[in-house]
Amino acid sequence: MVCSGSLAAKMKAYADEHQVVARMEELHLHIRRKRELASMRVHFFLQLQTRLDLSVHLKEAQDAIEKIRHRNVREETEGKKHTEN
Question: What is the pTM of this model?
Answer without folding.
Answer: 0.40
